[in-house]
Design goal:
The protein is built from 7 helices and 9 strands. The chain has 230 residues and is of the alpha/beta class. The chain has a single domain, classed as Muramoyl-pentapeptide Carboxypeptidase, domain 2 (2-Layer Sandwich), CATH 3.30.1380. The chain is globular, with a radius of gyration of 20 Å.
Amino acid sequence: MKRFIVLCLFIIAFGNVNAQHYKYIDSVKVMGLKKYMQQIKAHPETRLVEIKNYIPGIALDIRYATTNNFTRHQMYKEAKAFARLPVVLALKDVEADLKSRGLGIKIYDAYRPYTITVKFYEIARDTNFVADPRKGSKHNRGCAIDMSLIDLKTGKELDMPTGFDSFSKRASANYPNLPKQEMDNRELLKSVMSAHGFTVVPTEWWHYDFNGWSKYPLLDIPFSEIKQRN
């Protein structure tokens, strides 16, 4: 009988080691690698892909792979950008539209593991600028892009109201008191993204959500695991 009890306790303990538990949300609402692999086997068109593989000309400035971000810590081990395949295909149309105007895309962030969203919230609890981990982020779904515009000839960013991740009113997508050039550039980005299925977040001119985001669950998969499957 004792051996049986010990065996049961061992099985329970081993199961707990492999289970992911979250502080702010029910674990069943966040998809880990095993369930994600099952999902994309059934629906490969929903998989996360590396954006550069589909849009080679896109510029990357993945701030969370550096200390040049609001946390002052390196949050990602690799400067990579991933998103759901339909998001990337829509972004490819955006790039073609902008290219005809002599402009390109610079990405600051895209897919973000749920665990990182929790860390952001615990550093800065202002949910106007960081996602509430009780709900998760569109970034966790692989359906959000943080971005700006660049001049293709010079590679330089166009003038925008603020830098990336500015926690200020000026960062609002509709902030009115701006120099004309900054206003025009922001509105151009907004109109092109809207035309291809994205919506800007009201508090952040750089943050765009894919309009089909609600179809996709929250994910907590490291970049290294996605890379192996791209």
